[in-house]
Amino acid sequence: MAHEYFSPLELSDSSQCLCGILSGRKKTREPKEENVTLGPTVREGEQVFGVAHIFASFNDTFIHVTDLSGRETLVRITGGMKVKADRDESSPYAAMLAAQDVAQRCKELGITALHIKLRATGGNKTKTPGPGAQSALRALARAGMKIGRIEDVTPIPTDSTRRKGGRRGRRL
Q1: pTM to 2 decimals?
Q2: Which of 32, 79, 96, 114 has the highest CB neighbour number within 10 Å of its CB?
């Protein structure tokens, strides 16, 4: 039968813990107030850029703001989050409301300027941006966001799967 030996340090630590538990004392720590600042630190008059990915299909409009690398999502709002009716999700009005919310959130985070990446459905579907694209961009500019570069990132196939519609195409 082997005996376990405790060092005096181990015993004193455990006895202090037991005394604290048995005596009913609670350890109270005062909460420290920390100043949490959102966004990067910048000098006066310096622009802080984000990237606004605007995806405008004919069913909805997404406005998704990330940092410059595109890894960190800062805010993402869609037209469908702003209106009740399904048919209005892609409307210019819903896109405008979404863009206003995005601009307000960007200002809270300290972002003052945006590069725009505009995208339509693309692929073997339509390459034309939906109705919300233009109004979303206009609303961002009107809300006080500086616009950097505007780029069209619609995926265009170099060789694709077959388009729908059959051999003779869509007949009107």
Answers
A1: 0.73
A2: 79
